[in-house]
Each structure stands twice: as C-alpha cells, then as structure tokens.
Amino acid sequence: MRRAGARPARPHERFLRRRRAVRSQRWRWPLLGLALLALVAAAGWAVFVSPLLAVRQVDVTGAATSEVARLSVEKVRAQVDVPADTPLARVDLEGIVGAVEELPSVASATAARDWPSSVTVTVVERRPVAAIEAHGAWRALDAGGVIFGAYRRLPGGLPQVSASQAEPAERDAALAEAAAVVTALEPAIAARVSSVEASSRDDVVLRLASGEQVRWGSAEDSAVKARVLTVLLRVPAAAYDVSVPELPTTSQTALEPASSTSSR
C-alpha cells in the first residue's frame, strides 16, 4: 500500500532501480568465486609452503633403552632427517620409515602426521629369541634369524645358536631356520634347551641342559615334533631324532652330522 502523500515512482526511475539490481547480481558470483579462490590459495600456501605448519617436533613411541637393543628415542630421532621449517604436509613419511628401519634393532616402523606440527614415529623393536657369538661378542638373534644388538656378557634364559658348521652360502638360511625352531618350541621344552647347532636349514640339532641331543631337522612340523619329543623324553637316551616325527628314534650314542650320515 502506498503511503498517503508519497510520490509514485516514475517509470524511468523503476527501470534504473531494476538495472542496478541486475548489475549487482551479475557481479556478485564472480566476486564470490574470486574470494573463494583466494581463500583456497591462502590455505594451500599455509599448508604446503609457509613455515606456519612446519615440523616442530618428532615424537617416538615403542623405543625402549635396553641392554641388547640399545634403541633410544634420541637414536630414532637422529635417524629422522627432516630439514628445518619443512611443511608438515610435504614430509616424506615413507622416507622416514625407510630410514628408521635401517636401524638394526628395529623390526618395523610407521610414521604419521600429527597436526599442526608433529611427526609421530612408532617402532617395533626386534625381540631376541637366542644369542649368537659373532666377531668376538655375544649378539642377539631374532625370530627371523636377524643378528642385532650386543650383550656385555652371555645372557641367561636364551639358548646359544651356532651355524659354524654350515656352508658359508647357507649360513644365513641355517640361522633363520634355527631361529624359527627356537621360536616354535613349547615353553616346557624351550626351558631345557641350552644350545642349538644348525649345520644346514634342514639339520637343526638341539642340546639340552642335561646333555642330551635332539635332531630336529627343519622348522617344518615343529608342533608335531614337540609333542613327539615330549613323549620320547620319557625314554632315557643320549640322543633323540624327531626330524621325521612319524618315525622318531632314540640312540645311546651322540649324534653325527646329518651330512656325515647321508654320505655313508
């Protein structure tokens, strides 16, 4: 309703108002688009270029200083080579993982961004299953046959492993098989093992703390071999052979190397 006394808008005035409204509508969306592009560009610059979200800290979890691993948080951090003021979004996480896994005591590692300015590295340390003498020192052997760390003296509770009788080309495979055998042993049997000799990947021999020998063969069917040996140990003997668990044997004399036996 038109107010009393108000002058009616002339036709040309209404035309001008509509024209101004159309012009305003026409420029609104391009301006909003430009503002959005500017906002995206600023955000991209802040995340990928500027030092505003640069790495300030490297957090390490899973590393514990121990006598054998000697894997400290500081050692892991030193392995993570991130240049100063590197934007967090541009950090090479795969490169960090590769660098950390080069440490002998690290079994595996992961790396993740922790916004706004941290990298978190999580490591899984190797766990010793046996001890081995190498280069005049006692070293640790993990479940995969990897040698790492060092002991100041022979540790208790771990069997001694040797592959000195193996051919040089087969020594690593023999050690890996010996480690697999030790890992597969049931606790009751593992507690009685004092040393392990692997002359090949198919000829692993255990020596019990009480002096008996056990020809285990390879790590294959270790669960079956363990059950067979548990029964077989009830028979007094100097040596036991469970390398073929379906045909176990006992002997009152010490075992000969499998290679010597097969050559006859």
TrEMBL record:
One of its GO terms (cellular component) is plasma membrane. Coiled coil: none annotated. GO terms for biological process: cell division. The keyword Cell membrane applies. Keywords: Cell cycle, Cell division, Cell membrane, Membrane, Transmembrane, Transmembrane helix. Transmembrane segments: none annotated. Pfam families: FtsQ_DivIB_C (PF03799), POTRA_1 (PF08478). Residues 53-126 form the POTRA domain. InterPro entries: Cell_div_FtsQ/DivIB_C, FtsQ_DivIB, POTRA, POTRA_FtsQ_type. PROSITE patterns: POTRA. It is found in: Membrane. This is Cell division protein FtsQ. It comes from uncultured Nocardioidaceae bacterium.
